[in-house]
Structures
1.
Amino acid sequence: MNADTITAMCAVVIAVASLVVALYQTHAMRQHNRHSVRPILQLHRSWHAGGRAGIRLINSGLGPAVIVDSTLTVDDEVIGAWNKLSVDRVRDRLSVRPSAVTFSQGEVIAIDYEQYLLSVASYDPQNHDEVEDLINRRLTLKIRYESLYGGEGYTTVLRPMQ
């Protein structure tokens, strides 16, 4: 082996090492970009006497959420997706009709979104006990969603309280 062969082999090793580092760096940057726009959907119950009360959906993440699908269940009976038809079926069973906001598959939930999905405008524990019981003890809402990149399969679930 002469000096030219050794120099050429070193150049090839350095080039391959540079390629590996560049590929790793690209992968890490893509992962960082995905995490920096990750949506985080949360479902909360809130009961404030005299104020709006019910189920609230909040996107507290850094990116918009794309709804993949949803499932509404009442008393272990699957009603359907969280759409107007299914929610109206549930509201029709109640003596007091709460307000509702629904969404469809593929709908985008914006950053800082905060909206009551099922609620009463001026909560009174005595007049709205049926709605409170439905939301706290009988209703399950599952929402599957993704970021704009897609394919993550995130889920948020509101389960009955024990």
2.
Amino acid sequence: MVASVLGLLEEREAAARLREEAARLAGLLEAAEIDLERRVIAREELVEALAASAADAIPAAGGQEEAEGGPVPGSVVPLWRDGLAVTILAPDYQRVLAVVEERGRAGLGPLRAREITVALGLETTSTKIETVRSKARRLADRGWLVQDASGAFSAGRRPVAAPDDGSSG
């Protein structure tokens, strides 16, 4: 009887160690997902900044994209203006824009980043949602979408002023 009680205690102790290890690993996974999320956003911002810098150096860059048949993956989202075709945007941005515009045509309200992510058929991990949020925010900042005070996105175009040339890099 004593041996079976000791065996039971050892099993419970082993189970408790496994739970502790699982909790530790879950914490590490969460930290890694947050780190990845930050790196994805940082990379997108860097690509955007480099593209904007290159666009300043070569004034006809927007025309060049159109002349070569479309956007280049990782290309900058241009400021919206009358007559600018949606096809100038990279495919990921076109898909985000299409989801929001489709909802607008249906007469439904603004979409949150999570809803856009679901509509795109992506997993609803924090990394995917933040990537979609970053793309939608970039589209809104450049006049392709409208972002309301709650952070939701809706269809609509508006002219946006170009950033100042005197900004520090």
3.
Amino acid sequence: MATSTELWMPTSGRSAELQPAGRSWDVVRVPLSIGIGNRTLGLLGDTTGAVIQNPFDEVLYWLIALRSAETWDMTLLPGIQVWGATAYIEVPPIDCRKGPGVRWRVPPRGQYLTDPGALLAALKTATHEALGPRKKVSR
């Protein structure tokens, strides 16, 4: 019986495969400068779900539940994007954790999705630390 990760996880080789967002998960695309170290990844600690690192684009991708970030105020999160049904990302095989290409920064284990509320709180703190305070934009 296939698990939900087996439906989108590349099964062999060392190469990442393009997978569509908006089917099994949405993606939060975060610049490395906001995502690594003691910033977002450090703030989430063991509560983070799976995280993909793309060294070519210098970003981390967090997987979150479908449409769970629809109400986020993105003006407070410059440089961060939420991708859904119109995007594809490179997903590495489960054992690809090192090397020069796309790899798992945090591999899937049990629950591979990150809690969107916890991720949003960590992103706000990390963005504030990296870029200074942000003001909410009135519309």
4.
Amino acid sequence: MTEKAIFAPATAPLGLSLLVLPQASILEVASALDPLRNANRQLGREAFRWRVVSPDGAPVPLTCGLSLPATGTMADAVGNEVLMIIAGYRLAEVATRPLMRELRRIAPRFALVGGIDAGPWVMARAGLLDGHRATVHWEDLEDLAAAHPEVEVVPDRWVIDRNRVTIGGAAPAADFMLHLIGARHGGPLARQVANSFLTVARPGAEPQVAQRPAPGLDPRVAAAAARMEARIDTPEAVTETAAAVGLSPRRLETLFRQTLGTTPGAYALSLRLQAARRMLTDTRHPLAEVALRTGFSGPATLSRAFAKTFGHPPGRLRR
């Protein structure tokens, strides 16, 4: 079977193997499997079948503290048409050299190989995304592009490029599975499955972080917040933000206090500090680089703001 056949109308069951790595999210696993389960239920037959495997065949510890049973090792994944890699945190520990070697060995045995959340990182490290367009969770887009210039990294929700698919997270995983269901069994079934979960399928080319105002939020506040989120590394003055959304600084501050309970300056600072906290826990970037990427003049400035907000310096968190 070719990758084109994966997305062609079909009656035969499609087999998927899910390689779940330690510290993945249970929501990502559910988002990948539950739409397929529901499609089988709606059709009254096994249109999709799956197998969950782990690197060593042992139960996989997930981020929520639960362990996910596995039915075999990576070698047992072979035999299905699709291999999906689900990964989350602590890649330095779980994406080992033996794992990379085994992935490179078995990948040609599948018509389609994909990754969810940090799964594209694993694929890139194994050389499975060289020369491909790909996405990854939005927090990791910049790092993936810098570490793997041979990969064309885009901020889409999910990307299909030949026999590779990369998916940005749990919700995009459900979107992709609905796309797969629709391609093989028709749009009405995909909509029926989506309705079962009270959701709608979103296209892969849509940005992961859509700039949609929250219900009840003043659109000018939403626009200002979106500007702040897009300028984590190069924050602008509140006067500039206010002018960009057509308000005076005083009016913008009033609206922020009324709707978000804080000031524009404090909101922007909290975004930058949360981004710094993610980098400190999820990457090995030096403190100077973390400061640069979150708009602080240097490590000392970041450390003072970090300690004031979180009660301890960045170094203690990293240790």
